[in-house]
Design brief:
single chain, mainly alpha, 8 helices
Length: 212
Amino acid sequence: MAAQETAQETIQGFLDGLASSAPTPGGGGAAAISGAMGAALLSMVCNLTIGKKKYVEVEEELKGILGQSEALRAKLTAMIADDVEAFDAVMGAYGLPKGTDDEKAARAAKIQDALKVATDVPLACCRACREVIDLAQAVADKGNLNVISDAGVAVLSAHAGLRSAALNVYVNAKGLDDRTFAQTRLDELEALLGEAGARNEAIYEVVKAKVN
């Protein structure tokens, strides 16, 4: 299935693809959809808060968050296709001929180029998931209490997406010969992961206190 078609599948179709023996969609696509679900849930809470008299004081702030969460939802959904394309490029590079020294050199170069892309694609997913986590704080604090549990689900989904995508950064960076390139990506990844777990738990506790 083409990469763009993967992002347009039904939920059942996507899950069937994950469960199948086909290599894509895989963990990278699952990470992206986890982040996208988190963004979508933040949008839902915003949409059910905006226009309510009880929340008029936070309406403008949540309108701004809604614009950001919808942009992140679109970005993360598109990353499902990006992950398929990156994986296919790596597999294609490994499948190149290696009968002569020239072919071996060309193949090795193509593999390295593909691995760089395959490192940057999940790193972009990590960035977007971290943005969803950061947005969730205000939604959990100020969103409509009738649906505030969904803000908790949102941050948990985004955190799962972040940590899941991080695994693909690690595995692809490990195969890079350009260690400077690899280390800059790993340093950024650690910064994105830093405090994300603590923030995730803090937001979850805020939501838990409101629903308990």
